[in-house]
Design brief:
The complex is a heterodimer of chains A (438) and B (306). Chain A is built from 17 helices and six strands. Chain A is mainly alpha-helical and 438 residues long. In chain A, the strands form two sheets. A four-stranded mixed sheet of chain A has the order 2-1-5-6, with helices on both faces. In chain A, strands 3-4 form a two-stranded antiparallel ribbon. Classes of the chains: A mainly alpha (438), B alpha/beta (306). Bound molecules: adenosine-5'-diphosphate and magnesium ion (MG).
Chain lengths: 438, 306
Amino acid sequence: MNIIYKLIKKEIIRFLNDKTSMMLTFIVPIILMVIFGNIFGGHGSSRGKANLILINNSNSEIAKFIEQKLDSTETLRLIKNYSEEFSEIKFPYTEEIAKEHIKKGKISSALILPENFFTDTSSSLLFKFYYDPKNEIESAMIQGSVQQTIMSQVGGIMPVLMMRQAKKQIGENKFLNFSDDLKKTVSANFGVNVDSLQFLGGDFEKRAMNLNNNNSSNVIGNLVKFDSEQLVGADVKSPGLTRSIGGIAMMFMLFTLTAAANSMFEEKSEGTLNRLLCMPVKRSHILWSKYIYSLLLGIFQLLVLFTSAWLIFDLDIFSNFINLIIVIIASAAAAVSFGMIITSFAKNINQASGLSTLLILVMSAIGGAWFPIFLLPDWMQSLARGTLTFWAVEAYIQVLWRSADFSAIALNVLVLLSIAFIINFYSLLRFRKGKVFR
Amino acid sequence: MLQIENVSIKFGNIEALKGINLKVQKGEFFGLLGPNGAGKSTLMKIIVGYLKPDNGHVIMGNELVVYDNVNFRRKIGFVPQEISLYLELSAYQNLKIFGGFYNIPGKVLEEKITEVLKLVQLEDRKKDAVKNFSGGMKRRLNIAASILHDPELILCDEPTVGVDPQSRNAIFDMLMKLNREGKTIIYTTHYMEEAERMCPRLAIIDYGQIIAEGTLTELKKMLERQVTLKVLKTSITIEKTNELSQIGKLLELDGHYEIIPNEYFELNSKLFYYLEELGIPADIINLSRASLEDVFLSLTGRSLRD
Ligand SMILES: Nc1ncnc2c1ncn2[C@@H]1O[C@H](COP(=O)(O)OP(=O)(O)O)[C@@H](O)[C@H]1O
Ligand SMILES: [Mg+2]
């Protein structure tokens, strides 16, 4: 035991003396997290604003309200006027000019609220959105921001639209019958007093559309608000951000731990491995020290990276901390096994690092470390389930974004620990035949 | 102290050692001389229990050396042939790490490190990274890392390869000092000058076999003659080859003749008189006493330097 402890101490001293490893373990992933986090919607830092032309031709209150809300959206900068070249005079944008500017590539997209955007009989909101296909990503993000703003800020309008849709579809009488039933169902299921459910009465529209009304008597407003919090709530960070952080952390832990395992080749060529084995040190001591040290390093690395994400993006790591720790330990154990199996199979360090880099990049790409796997073709999605990255990243998203309890991550943890157990056992057997100890 | 009995080992088809038998007494400075690939390092690794012999065994004191049984290694200091150090770390860090595996109490280890650094003359460089050391300094540290635990037996596997003459002498002095303090030393080398200078008793190993063993005098006695005459090839000597071969067995080598004088010419005075008669100038002749090189040559028909 004392020998293993000394060997682990040796690993730590070597690590602390290796500036490149330290950079790759902590600094580089944090830098990448900052970059990716800002792309996928972090809150904590000043994210660049996207320019969007806004032309509001509607007189309706709702249009004004939406314009005002879009104006205050963090991610958008609304452009409403333009000026001719060499001129100081500003003109308000028109639809024609906006189209022209997009075609010329001066700006990537325009949002137009036409005259008939919302009228007394509208059952939907009419937007016109122009964009430059060359700037698809930016315009998709802008569209997303616009939708998010409307969903979260003007939720009150949705039920009105839905009701008008319903009346249109099934006729006014049937609708009233239906709403009676609905009232009863709602009161039965949500335990709300039927009398308070006056929302389908005549003044409902007025109340719902009283856009600045935030008071709690607005029942359906509250219901919708409740719903929209689940989807794009203000407190919870975006899944994209969580995925980036979890994915980058996982990818770099794999790099760190393969490097730690592969350092056995380094020690072999340095001769220190042989020297140790001519001292009171056994091969099994060396293996055990590697396993334990790698596990500790992986856990420490993930803690540092997630703590940085907390500091930089305000990522909530504490409300579900125990489950986070469980996932961290399970994924570190799986990553250790990955590093060790490669070292046990490889003939030399070049082979080992080439193979591991390739596998880590592939696993990260198809395992969801860079983007959600639903973007991949079906067969790749099934392949993803064979990567430890998939199980780890999904578990991080469950824990950090959905604040899921243990039952939601139990399968992931089980899979990760099984991977760790089986592969570590196999690599232990492999080391008897492998090249490292020859 | 150490008995090696009938030890053999194979690596695939290569029979690296073929039935080695050796005895080393306590306090000896024992040499193992042989060309590259003779099996010296392999034998060292078997003694320390790092390699497992296919046949035979090693007994140290009255303990059988078992492969991978690490406890008796506390009595051995193994100096590997290759520099085996953490190059990124400092001399002190290296010693601290390697000394750490011998259960030496912290304070004693610190004292020991200071003492050993002084012995290898590196105390003023102890904070520097080993990668910045010269070849000789690395070699000295390579030895230092193996003697922190006061081993009874020190195995030195070619500790002077690639070393400047100054460091070489420092290493010799150091090892002889350790030997005087009572440590048994086994020293392998392929330089016969080193073996001759350092090792009162030695074995010559070639192709995995001990081909001779004994004290320096015993080994030289194996030779037909104790004296070798070397004559440079010049226009005069080439003309007189026949006459020269009258002296004794004549070998024609690259730049010179090598002659092992017969009994009649063993007396120097007769030899020099004869050479003078032939008109061969004194500055192209060289008379040398037998060396281990000659022993090796006579035993194998090859030069040690091949
Ligand atoms: N691990 C090994 N695998 C295969 N062959 C080896 C190994 N170690 C040594 N040998 C072979 O055994 C022979 C003796 O090697 P070695 O003991 O290193 O010689 P020396 O130290 O006298 O130069 C050589 O032919 C060498 O190639
Ligand atoms: Mg050797």
